């Protein structure tokens, strides 16, 4: 269902965030994330004027992960920043991501290592998207998301699908699980 029709309005700012996932030939994965902020009009920054349509931020973060979702390498680049000569010097700090697991309290460890003056607000915000982006990338490639469809052939080999009970639609006592993952469906407890 689409959003409701908007009132009369004019675009002033666009923030574009992307995360591209690449399976590497060496068995590792690269997650290339970017955040780009663009104003539609000319603006004055303390560092000088920025023409409309030119990015205020154009930041990139790459993490290399293994198949267990552990970060084995990280790098950051700042191609457009509001404070040239200062903002882009923080890139090397993102090596602090190496050794973290995207699935083991990643956002907590990220905050400990790179929040506030320890990092760039925008790069750290971008890094928070990496766990769910990695899961989406691994779905059907590294993780079986067929819901144990082969459980009837070999019931002992089927494992509980990772995605169950991680969102509203895929709660174990819900109708979607009853339809698409019947082996893992449980009856709702009525109170």
TrEMBL record:
<dbReference type="InterPro" id="IPR021312">
    <property type="entry name" value="DUF2889"/>
</dbReference>
<protein>
    <submittedName>
        <fullName>DUF2889 domain-containing protein</fullName>
    </submittedName>
</protein>
<dbReference type="Pfam" id="PF11136">
    <property type="entry name" value="DUF2889"/>
</dbReference>
């Amino acid at each position: 269902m689409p959003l409701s029709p908007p009132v009369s309005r004019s675009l002033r700012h666009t923030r574009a965030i992307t995360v591209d996932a690449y399976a590497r030939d060496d068995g590792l994965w690269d997650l290339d994330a970017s955040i780009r902020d663009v104003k539609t009009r000319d603006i004055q920054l303390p560092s000088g004027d920025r023409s409309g349509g030119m990015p205020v931020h154009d930041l990139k973060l790459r993490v290399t992960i293994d198949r267990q979702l552990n970060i084995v390498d990280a790098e950051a680049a700042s191609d457009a920043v509001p404070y040239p000569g200062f903002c882009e010097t923080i890139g090397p700090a993102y090596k602090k991501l190496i050794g973290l697991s995207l699935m083991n309290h990643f956002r907590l460890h990220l905050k400990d290592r790179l929040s506030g003056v320890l990092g760039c607000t925008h790069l750290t915000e971008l890094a928070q998207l990496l766990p769910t982006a990695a899961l989406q990338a691994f779905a059907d490639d590294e993780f079986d998301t067929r819901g144990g469809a082969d459980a009837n052939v070999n019931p002992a080999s089927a494992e509980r699908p990772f995605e169950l009970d991680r969102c509203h639609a895929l709660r174990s006592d819900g109708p979607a699980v009853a339809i698409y993952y019947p082996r893992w469906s449980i009856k709702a407890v009525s109170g």
